[in-house]
Specification:
It is a single chain. With about 375 residues, the chain is of the alpha/beta class. The protein folds into three domains: about 100 residues, Rossmann fold (3-Layer(aba) Sandwich), CATH 3.40.50; about 70 residues; about 150 residues, Heat Shock Protein 90 (2-Layer Sandwich). It is about 45% helix and about 15% strand. It has a five-stranded parallel sheet with strand order 2-1-3-4-5, with helices on both faces. Strands 7-9-10-12-11 form a five-stranded mixed sheet. A two-stranded antiparallel ribbon has the order 6-8.
Length: about 375
């Protein structure tokens, strides 16, 4: 097993006997030491040997300790320096610390005083190197993410343009075929053309959802106070118009004002409420409830329905893109809506989760952080028999 590398210290002191004694003493305490009796020869040793620490006497003829330290750190910016000084020059040593020295030690030396200073200096050096490596990794990762975002934008453009064009041609040609030659086409062929059209429409919806999901990571968030009760009423009014003669009982509880991006929170409500209404399709008395409660530092919103529900053993799949717990024949959809909800709520600093039981309905929860503005007004509205 290889032996751990000893910390290397360059000791510079014009008093040769003292320098040699210090080198010998520190070798006995786990350091690899090299001694020099003047600044010039010390600097000449730097390019050939990688030192972690420079221990330099402040008062030396020719180059003093501060000058040696400045030049040494120019040659090796990672080198950490400690100045040795007598009682009468402490003020100068403190000034040296302001210009690059890590610390100073007093002569005559006490081993119990110098060893902790060396240990601290080397620990700080290791920390600086680790931080520099982390910053380098962050820069590299940032560059990779920027490149990935550019690729994603190029892909989004390709999806929106290159894939839509042939898809539009397929849908348009199929529609023209039915319109212009419907009377001549056998019923079985018309059924096949209908499948082509429906499949193309589903693919178009998948493309739209994919683009919407990809844009969420780049879209900026405009945080402001949001009247979420009014937002919920608007969403429910829009959804009710799409239900035709079908009636769903919708109850909205107290929904306090929150802070967020109104457009993105509208998307959250639209996705959750439309899902709740969709999955109650086969209920004689479909019911949906939207409520809110305060839980610690969060507002927790819930959308409950008495619809098809799902097996909780598959709950972890819900918020992944294109994950579906029901077949397309049972309920339409692309499996992206809940992924969008998860992404939006996550970007607001909140959480999303669900509870359900097969054939007994489901409840979807999302939380948003409470802000001071949230408690300024509490609004409640009731929408029943919608």
């Amino acid at each position: 097993m290889p032996q751990p590398k000893l910390p290397r210290i360059l000791i510079v002191d014009d008093e040769a006997a003292q320098m040699q004694a210090l080198c010998s003493t520190l070798r006995g305490h786990g350091y690899a030491t090299t001694g020099r009796s003047d600044g010039r020869t010390a600097l000449e040793a730097l390019p050939d040997s990688k030192f972690e620490l420079l221990l330099a006497d402040l008062a030396m003829p020719g180059m003093d300790g501060i000058a040696v330290l400045h030049e040494a750190q120019r040659l090796d910016p990672d080198l950490v320096g400690i100045i040795m000084t007598g009682e009468g020059t402490i003020a100068t040593a403190v000034r040296a610390m302001k210009t690059g020295a890590f610390d100073y030690v007093l002569k005559p030396f006490k081993l119990s005083a110098i060893l902790p200073v060396l240990a601290r200096a080397l620990a700080v050096r290791d920390l600086r190197l680790a931080n520099a490596e982390l910053e380098r990794s962050v820069r590299e990762r940032t560059a990779e993410l920027e490149a990935a975002n550019k690729d994603l934008m190029a892909f989004s453009y390709s999806v929106s343009h290159d894939l839509r064009s042939p898809l539009s041609a397929i849908m348009g040609s199929a529609d023209l075929l039915i319109d212009d030659h419907g009377a001549e086409i056998p019923a079985s062929a018309r059924e096949l053309v209908g499948i082509v059209i429906k499949s193309a429409e589903r693919m178009a919806q998948l493309i739209d959802d994919l683009l919407r999901l990809s844009r969420l990571g780049r879209q900026s968030i405009a945080m402001r106070p949001v009247n979420i009760a009014a937002l919920a009423r608007e969403v429910l009014d829009e959804l009710a118009r799409g239900q035709g003669a079908r009636r769903v009982s919708v109850r909205v509880g107290d929904l306090p004002q929150c802070v967020g991006d109104p457009a993105l929170l509208r998307q959250v409500l639209t996705n959750l409420l439309s899902n709740a209404i969709k999955f109650t399709r086969f209920r004689e008395s479909p019911a949906v409830e939207l409520t809110c409660r305060r839980q610690g530092s969060e507002w927790v919103y819930s959308v409950r329905d008495n619809g098809a529900g799902f097996d909780m053993r598959r709950a972890t799949e819900l918020f992944g893109p294109f994950q579906r717990l029901h077949t397309a024949e049972q309920f339409e959809g692309t499996g992206v809506g809940l992924s969008i909800v998860h992404r939006i709520v996550q970007r607001h600093g909140g959480r999303v989760w669900a509870e359900a039981e097969v054939d007994k309905g489901a409840t979807f929860y999302f939380s948003l952080p409470c802000h001071a503005a949230d408690t300024d007004s509490d609004m409640a509205t009731m929408i029943a028999d919608r």
